[in-house]
Specification:
- The chain is an alpha+beta fold.
- It is built from one helix and eight strands.
- The chain has a single domain, classed as minor pseudopilin epsh domain (minor pseudopilin epsh fold).
């Protein structure tokens, strides 16, 4: 005995509709055009973010340096090594106490430092601006009570090309640093 299965008729089903190859290619072409138009703006956005992030890190290191100096009761140095593009925060070494919490950062290759010792002195990007002593690193020094030490840099400017810069600048009262943004319009 054979059993026969009865299938319902396909009369009331709507026809199956799909995208054609031409429609898919048209959508892909529109996406490619949109991506190519937005890519330059995205690149500019991310470059600006690099500058802002590095500047905020510097400002945070000034706060950390003052806090660590006061908490540990020993001087701290936020130092800058211009030739290598490195900077960091470390306690000034003593023979008995090595700084195990020292921090060391490398500046993004698209950025560069410009340093100023006083409010009226020019910005220096030359590694030898401290005079003949090539081993001395420019620094922002924090005394054991958390205050700024004598000889600290007045301004540290991070520059990205000729278009934008952010400066870590000593405030008018001389007690802390603040960030100032400088947008230079080319051709002016």
């Amino acid at each position: 005995m054979t059993s026969s299965t009865v299938h319902p008729p396909l009369v009331n089903r709507p026809p199956f509709r799909a995208f054609t190859l031409v429609e898919l290619l048209l959508v892909l072409a529109l996406l490619a055009i949109g991506a190519s138009l937005s890519a330059p703006q995205l690149a500019t956005f991310f470059r600006g973010r690099t500058l802002d992030n590095e500047a905020r890190r510097l400002l945070s290191l000034t706060h950390l340096g003052a806090a660590r100096a006061a908490a540990e009761g020993r001087p701290m140095s936020l130092w800058f090594d211009l030739p290598s593009g490195r900077y960091g925060l470390a306690a000034l070494e003593t023979p008995r106490h090595a700084d195990t919490r020292a921090q060391d950062f490398t500046l993004d290759p698209e950025l560069r430092f410009e340093l100023s010792l006083t409010q009226s002195s020019p910005l220096y990007a030359d590694p030898g601006f401290l005079g003949g002593d090539r081993t001395a690193k420019p620094e922002i020094r924090f005394e054991p009570d958390g205050t700024l030490g004598g000889g600290s840099l007045h301004r540290v400017t991070l520059r990205q090309g000729a278009a934008a810069a952010v400066s870590l600048t000593l405030t008018d009262d001389g007690l802390r640093y603040e960030l100032l943004r400088h947008d230079v319009v080319p051709g002016r």
